[in-house]
Amino acid sequence: MLKKIPSILSPDLLKALMEMGHGDEIVLGDGNFPAQSVGRDAIVIRADGHHVNELLDAILTMMPLDQYVENPVGLMAVVPGDPVKPVIWDVYRETLARHGENPAHIEFVERFAFYERARKAYCIVATGETEIYANILLKKGVVVK
């Protein structure tokens, strides 16, 4: 155990966050996200039993988002014709704002385009999240003194 590190962040996840550089991306996938098949060339970290927003909150205490791009956050867009209105997105906006990130800088990425970006991500975290359309992609920024 260490002080001031959220206990939800596993040693493997902390290692991945430390290894990531400016512009690298991390995906927090919900329980339906095909983490293993999409992440064949990425680091896949299991976080079964945890919710995406819990991890998002913990990660944002340690990792800044990229301030040099318009959209450092990506959400999987609702598939056209699907009547779902993801309430989890409002929770994410609140979490982003609480950490000083602008929730207006969220990009909505078409499902298969999201999978393609996830294939190129540094890391995919497979969670036990049960909310639908709860996948989120974060682009790492620069730590400034």
| Main structural class | alpha/beta
Write the H/E string, N to C. Answer: HEHEHEHEHEE
Overall spatial form: globular
Roughly what is the average pLDDT, rounded to an integer? 96
Biggest sheet overview: 6 strands, mixed
CA distance, first residue to last residue: 26 Å
What does this protein look like?
The chain has 145 residues and is an alpha/beta fold. 30% of the residues lie in helices and 19% in strands. The chain is built from five helices and six strands, in the order αβαβαβαβαββ. The protein has a six-stranded mixed β-sheet. Helix 3 runs parallel beside helix 4 (88-98). The longest helix has 11 residues, at 88-98. The radius of gyration is 14 Å and the shape is globular. The protein starts with 10 loop residues before the first helix and ends in a 6-residue tail after the last strand. The model has no long low-confidence stretch (mean pLDDT 96).
For this entry, give a set of tags.
alpha/beta; six-stranded mixed sheet; 5 helices
